[in-house]
Amino acid sequence: MSISPADADALAHSRRLQALIREQIAQAGGAIPFSRFMELALYAPGLGYYSAGAAKFGAAGDFVTAPELGSLFAECIAEALAPVLRAIGEDARFVEIGGGSGRFAEYAIKQLMLLDAMPASYAILEPSADLRQRQREHLQRRLTPPVFDRVRWLDRPIEERWSGVLFANEVIDALPTPRFVLRDGEVFEEHVGIDAGGGFARVDWPADALLAAAVRHVERQLDAPFADGYRSELLPQLPYWLQAVIGGMDAGALLFVDYGHPRCEYYQPQRGDGTLRAFHRHRLVDDVYANLGLQDLTASVDFTALAEAGTGAGFEFSGYCSQASFLLGNGLDRVLAAHEARAVDEAARYALRQQVKTLTLPGAMGERFQAMGFARDVGFGHAFLAGDLSYRL
């Protein structure tokens, strides 16, 4: 099935974003770091992919996230986090980073209420004004007024002291990432410039000290140095981003679900051009410069780097496992049985079982996505009792 061409309005929107990026390239002297290009492509106000008005999630968008499949994913996340919220008490807060369509918040809040673990507030840290409005409208329709009144949106991380849980699903993969390449044993950083025909082109410039040191840190943990020409992604800013989104957090748990690999698998020799890719209308797009503002850009997560960032921020490592193991270890069978008991017919039960297959089968989301958790002054190890993968980090 071919992808139908974008309409005139979408193409005009893309041209405006391209013009903005060209202007930035000119101001920078001929090239900008790829991370800056990715930041503009995804988050430029009013023009970037996540900042503009087109649908992103579900059948009408460009990709499907776990909460868009139904409620089972969010309910299992709530099951895992409920003991933490109850242990913290009535002042506990729940912070979700990047609220998507708002469906995760809806399902999680309803399950937390059933578990007698509803926090004092449910906050969504959402940089996109468009997505924020969509989330607000969705939750106003789906939650009763007293419950909706506990939901708020954050412009920035919570700076005052707070305790609770922080959750992010498919967020780290969308952080603007630097790209590096090895040339004659030296580290270069990928930039984006303009070619002779006026299109965007890859340009490699010597890396700064931060990126070069981060690449050498990774090399020391691998069996051999990177070969000349090896190109990939690396997020030396991840520890700073994590500490920023935690804000003034005292006690609680951090939970991240995303797709990626432990470091030794991420930087395999055969993955010599990294993991960067684009998605447009549920199709993988090879050209990351195409459809600017109309397609998602993403790179896999180095879960070893995430483990380093979490412990470096002063949290204890709680566990690491596949999404399938995490969901099964946090009540998926029980949650599914409750839904099947309430299902109106066999078609509804079949849809539930298909949801489970997508969430857990290795060829779907079950192994490609992983969960990692951290905790401070609370227990969170209970959430990672099934399928421990920490030995691979």
TrEMBL record:
GO terms for molecular function: protein-arginine omega-N symmetric methyltransferase activity. Pfam families: Methyltransf_28 (PF02636). This is SAM-dependent methyltransferase. It comes from Luteimonas salinisoli. The keyword Glycosyltransferase does not apply. Coiled coil: none annotated. Keywords: Methyltransferase, Transferase. One of its GO terms (biological process) is methylation. It comes from the Bacteria. The keyword Transmembrane helix does not apply.
